[in-house]
Amino acid sequence: xxxxxxxxxxxxxxxxxxxxxxxxxxxxxxxxxxxxxxxxxxxxxxxxxxxxxxxxxxxxxxxxxxxxxxxxxxxxxxxxxxxxxxxxxxxxxxxxxxxxxxxxxxxxxxxxxxxxxxxxxxxxxxxxxxxxxxxxxxxxxxx
Length: 143
Hints:
Blueprint (H helix, E strand, L loop, with lengths): L5 E3 L5 H20 L3 H24 L1 E3 L5 H10 L4 H22 L6 H24 L8
Antiparallel strand pairs: 1-2
Helix pairs in contact: 1-2, 1-5, 2-3, 2-4, 2-5, 3-4, 4-5
């Protein structure tokens, strides 16, 4: 794993990051429904990053503070000791971040297909992270 700038974070703080992830994910879905594809995609990316942060905090007591968002994906995989489920989720995050760079920093607009894909990825990643936090008894099923 490349060197990742990390911040030690108390495990109970995972809840706040999960709440942000859920909020961003719901907003991404709303923007998709309103045909605001750039906004939907970028909110989906932020949902994915917050979801990964929540999992890393809850399961490992740390999160990425690296300006390169791809390092958050590396840390997520490492938090799960590169178990297949963690690598799969880290790859979802990498795909989201790849879309972010194209839409946010280049002269490209998100298509309906891009936005749908991003929202679906963030929903799966955030759901997975939430389930991991429930298993770790850091959040309740009501969250």
